[in-house]
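Worked Example 4.2. Consider the chain below.
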Amino acid sequence: MGANKATSGPGAGNNKTYSSSREIGLMNRDIKDQKQRAIKTQQDKNEAFKEQGAYNTRRSINKLPSFLPGAALLKALSPKLQENSRRTRKFFTDKVLTDPRGLKNFGVNKKQFESLSVEKQNQIYNNYITTRRDNKTDGYGTVIKEGNDNQVVQAPPVATTMPVGTPTAVEISQSEATKAEDPIELRKRKAKARGRSPTIMTGVTGATGSLTLGKPSLLGS
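Applying the procedure from the previous section yields the following structure tokens:
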């Protein structure tokens, strides 16, 4: 990735990306040592992410017609704008993704981010920079609550467990089965259950309670 990268190699031509993960893999496929190939590939991926914004800026400004008002000024400012893009991307990887706030908001730290494809890295970063530019999030990706005080709040976490008191599927099925039961049979069962308690008056030792026996009498009297 030398000084001629705008005309050959990564970022050349009309490609929308400075360099893709596939391109990097193809460039390094001839490195026999796997460890060295992995190190070189990671270095190239880091460089590709850092240079993507600068490449976009340079490519857009170079396409401006010379007769367009302000075109000459933008072309003069192009190197400065490219450097600003590199600085912002470096801030994202070295500051945002190493901060607990960044980890919470983006779900990855710097090391995990670097293991992603260049395309996925740019997708995450583009979302970060867009919401930041629209004043929806702060510099660490934390959602800014609308209001005059510009209070910063964390985005609510996604619920991953069932709330306390929520009926389970088994409880719901049991409830539905009870509702669907024949009401006549249900009333009979309840009546039988109520009748057992007052009529059974014996315990394990025999009859209990105060019992009154009738007087003996002859049959037929």
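Residues 34-62 form the longest helix (29 residues). Helices lie at 21-27, 34-62, 71-96, 100-106, 110-114, 118-133, 169-180, 183-199. Compare this with Example 4.1 before moving on.
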